[in-house]
Amino acid sequence: MSEAQSVPPSDTEFEDGIVEERLRRLWARRRGFWGALAAVDHKVIGRRYIATAFVFLGLGGLLALAMRLQLAAPEARFIDADRYNQIFTMHGTTMMFLFAVPVMEAMAVYLVPLMVGTRNIAFPRLNAFSYWTYVLGGILLWVAFALDVGPDVGWFAYVPLAGPEFSPGKRADIWAQMITFTEIAALSVAVGIVVTVFKQRAPGMTLDRIPLFVWAMLVMAFLVIMAMPAIMLASTTLILDRLVETQFYNPAEGGDSLLWQHLFWFFGHPEVYIIFLPAVGMVSTILPTFCGRPVFGYLALVMAMIATGVLSFGLWVHHMFTVGLPRLGESFFTASSMSIAIPAGIQIFCWLATLWDGRPRFQTPLLFIIGFIITFVMGGLTGVMVASVPLDTQVHDSYFVIAHFHYVLIGGAVFPLLGAIYYWFPKFTGRMMSERAGKWAFGLIFVGFHMTFFPMHMLGLMGMPRRVYTYQPEMPWGNINLFVSLSSLILASGFLLFFIDVVRSYRRGEEAGDNPWGASTLEWAIASPPPPYNFRRIPVVESREPLWDCGETLPVASGLRLDRRELIVTSVVQGLPEAREASPQECIWPFWAALATAFLLIWSIFSPWAVVWGSIPAAAALIAWFWPKGTPEDEG
Prior knowledge:
single chain; 636 residues; 2 strands; 2% strand
């Protein structure tokens, strides 16, 4: 039989052992240094994203401790004003752009393909490109800080302070280009998540059977796609003002300094929910497992997540109540800012009902979820307060806002994230984290957090402004600041214990089974850690809780070829099989494309001609990436 007439082998023709061996060879990752650079497996990229994001969390935390040391006593001389400006800018920028958003997308990169029952994320090479771009942007920012040219204009870089007149040098330019790095990375990941969820779900996984974690990541991805262009436009126009003397933000030449705030916060407030919504998915996944029952109000939770995403685009002006906007506009944004508490309240009541009607097992992941509920409710209450124009006018740019901000973001995102790390660590590594160390870490973090940030409400009400590096002894803030600084050591010790437990457990933790928690979602149907191909045969989903409802026998689909990497493409609504799609193999060109893009962006900080000449290596790398290779797998 000629090659044109031959029938390609599929997994219907062989026993499971033969299928597994062929899949292992087909999806095996290339070894060595170049193999690491060329990896496109979503699990490899996801683990790298998570590890890198937590490195930035540690660096940002060290900066926070430095600020607390400086503010522990009046007129301290530990840090001078210039370095302090760099530190608080670096802290906010690192935590928001290099930790919070990337780590939530990283969890999606690793878990979404497993939870929807596919073998890799859509556009895996684009996914790999996004990681290298993210890392290079973070390196740019921190190298600049180490060289004493770190940005010093705050993590939101208000003009005219960030403009050429008041910020000479390259500090603000470095901040603006770092934003461009993170925009590229976040948008690349978001596109892959949307396509994976809509077109690569397991057969039978209809829209009302999608796990809530996946729903949360889908809404988050749409927020990234719709909100990121605003900050892209803002950072680009800022650097144009600084490099080629455009006048977008110069009122004397027809520009408008408030335009920056509108553009930034049109992105900035949805960014809060880009961080928060994945946490909603984590909570809605972990709670049912430890309560032994399906989550209460599945449809209500899905609609609340979608409503939160939609409403998040109508809140940005509540950051600008003190700039002199029309009263009618302020009233509208006050109402919209308060209305977003409604879907948040629905979520809280659904989780409480799940706890009430279940039989909770109070293990470490559930403790972090309970800590999240308590902390987020407190942060939400102060959020409703600052949505009121009269109160916001009084506490604007004070430590009250810092307290609220950290209650919402650390309480609303980091607590669920830490619970998720304890929960999915067996899936990532095949080992369990220490339950004893986990409970100690939770206790230190929970107590240390509230002791650190709750007194900041009082500092704000007593008039202490944010972004000051010192204060006079006659001001009544000294004792509270000392208490806050000492309390931050408790919080830091909890995170240190968490990091130690992660390293210890990765090396010699207790081995975990395939499903140590008795969970119901598809990622626990395979080995821990998963094989390179994820699923030997693609599962067929018949309910929302497939592992609970199907027992030990999970229906599977067959027919995928064993001579090339293939995925099943399904319909958007019903999850019906429509086609077989080739999945790209490892490729070094996404790394080179990211390197060329970084070269272009960094060079453009110093010369606008970089956009012309720097485009040549970037274009060459992209052409090599997309050039037809002759095999279906290499055409993706």
